[in-house]
Amino acid sequence: MSSAPLTMPLITNDVTVLGLLSLILGFVFYTSNSQHPIWQKFYKYVPALLMCYLLPSLLNTFGIVSAEVSQIDEVAKYYLLPACLVLLTLSIDIKAIGALGNKALIMFFTGTVGVVIGGPIALLVVSVIWPELLGVTGPDAVWRGMAALAGSWIGGGANMLAMKEIYGADGKIFTIMVTVDIVVANLWMACLLYFAANHKRIDAKSGADTSGINKLIARVDAFEREHARRPELKDFIYILAIAFGAAGFAHLAADFLVPYFQTNFPELKKFSLHSKLFWIIVLVTTVGLLLSFTKVRQLEAVGASKVGSSFLYILVATIGLHMDITQIVEAPKYVVIGLIWMAVHIALLFIVGRVIKAPIFYLAVGSKANIGGAASAPVIASAFHPSLAPVGVLLAVLGYALGTYMAWICGQLLRIIGS
Length: 419
Description:
single chain
């Protein structure tokens, strides 16, 4: 049986496609930061990130651009994704993280563990009601989409995209999980903002020691004053050199590692060790971590993570080209999975927080550094005090680094249960 002929889209030139995606991102960022009442009201209910996914999907839906014809997502996946990851991890300050205190780190890692075990638990619970969710091995398998969501919930969008490619989740299940991510994460975000507004009363009731918070505020303010400076052209050249230099190294190493493991360890294919992209992602994350111990980390003072985030949003837009918005009607079943998953994460945080008497600030930022990453962790941190926003970034960057490894582990657990 012959396949149906491929319908050519209106635009086939990938440079034009990139231009359209860039214009869409510019439009979303301009309107989401506008002071006009109409846009402020719109983005109060519709997250800007969702628009970065949905608007590119309309290009595909109406035949303007075809995800099957365009190769721009391949460029984004193999060039921009590794460059993005190294820029988001090189700014980690291990000493500063240690200075946050044991309770902050305990709550952060508790949140990470909650995501890793929460996914498999949620899949097992929901499979009792919908057993058809198990036993699927193709690219539309629920566990593959959940593995991608685990990447988002342990770090952020870059890790979600990385896990999507590593575990081969198709556009349909990925679209559904993007919806689950936005719905469930925003519900939790609203709860955390409530906690921030009432943190003094909550901490007083729990008996948490908040004396370290004031010291933390003073330390963050001093660090910003010492390192902030106006970026120059040479700084951006250095940033690009590190980003694409590390990406090139990772590609070169992966070209040797993949055939080596294919030849000598064929049984390790199921653990993604035969995947070139897996090795690229792991290597650039490792390079970023190693660079964080050097003077290269000072590039963060001139916007290294902002450049990385720019790459990230282009990645988001290219993924949007594969989205089928008509499949969102199937999301409610999967939102239940997300709610159970999040409930495990939250319950574990509150249990551990109560045991160690951690301030609600550490619980909130530790959670959002996992669930929301650099996009929302600073928002939650600044809701407690404006000077604490960099703390959210600091923990979120740690989440970016851990996301590659921990989300992969979560994906393996989901694979065992779901396939």
